[in-house]
């Protein structure tokens, strides 16, 4: 890896760091956003990674709905009555509403939390010898942050976790979506049918979408039966003559179990002030929910509260940094001598001579070199290692960087 400065190349002391001395280019934030979102209209519309699933969802909704409206127009052609016109208008309005709520759910920022570009500073002092504490110890060995923090919410202790990707402590009820690669406020779930995360800013529209889908299924199912029953002759003969209405009845009967069941489930979540993520992960029915305010207040909170403003302006101009290392700041425990699938609990292991628990993965390490250092005579020129003091390598890098700046000034002259 090299450093380029006015056509002067200098080798970098670190193979993982590259510094560009050229001025960065200005681009819109959505053009350099590190999440997996897809943007339209210059960053004004925000979709999830699997936004293409909207085509399938639109077909599953629009296909039977438009077919029903066409069937009603054919009936009006033979029997022009006010009742048939009202049924057609009602079906058309429900279909338009359903599509409107679908795209308002899918094309909206669900409550994405801005990323940090650097690790946050430690706000508290923690004992680094605590064996039960998992630390966020990444590229900066002089900074240690606890993996989990305790915060008080409505008199209850709630744990908030550090996100290695976004470099922040997630607010209460927030979570990181692995599909869209974003931390989302009041994360409910990632819905593949709308191709978007469901969070604090689009959850009300999601409820309206699944509710209107349920009503549309019931509407088409009911009036398709009415069309069959109004025909002359026996029911079986009417069904054989009007196969289109029969197909709509069967389709809506199957679909209503899915969208209707989903609607009922989310009404239960609203009444208890839970998210889908919390319901499956924490099971508040077994312990007290710190967020519930009672059934009526919970529904009032959803229906009467203002939608939070977006925390990110995807159209703002930002400086694009070139050739800068771009990777997730996973902890050294995950990126060093073990993989992410081999995480271990620091509380596990056997007891050492000092009475402290030693993780199994550290039991086979050779500590003879460390013991030899301890046995050195006083006054010997030994090198001390302190996590809060820059190492010799860091000092050499600072001296090297100063030389590069001086050479750069000479070139400009």
From TrEMBL:
Enzyme Commission number(s): 2.3.1.225
ATP-binding in keyword set: no
Any GO BP: protein targeting to membrane
Keywords from the named record: Acyltransferase, Membrane, Transferase, Transmembrane, Transmembrane helix
Cellular component GO terms held in the UniProt record: endoplasmic reticulum; Golgi apparatus
InterPro entries: Palmitoyltrfase_DHHC, PFA4/ZDH16/20/ERF2-like
Enzyme's top EC category: transferase
Transmembrane annotation, as ranges: 54-74, 86-104, 203-226, 246-269
Palmitoyltransferase DHHC domain residues: 160-281
Membrane topology: Multi-pass membrane protein
Reaction catalyzed: L-cysteinyl-[protein] + hexadecanoyl-CoA = S-hexadecanoyl-L-cysteinyl-[protein] + CoA
Subcellular location: Endomembrane system
Record bears the keyword rRNA-binding: no
Gene Ontology molecular function: any one: protein-cysteine S-palmitoyltransferase activity
Record text about domains: The DHHC domain is required for palmitoyltransferase activity.
Family: Belongs to the DHHC palmitoyltransferase family.
Protein name as annotated: S-acyltransferase
Organism: Pisum sativum (Garden pea)
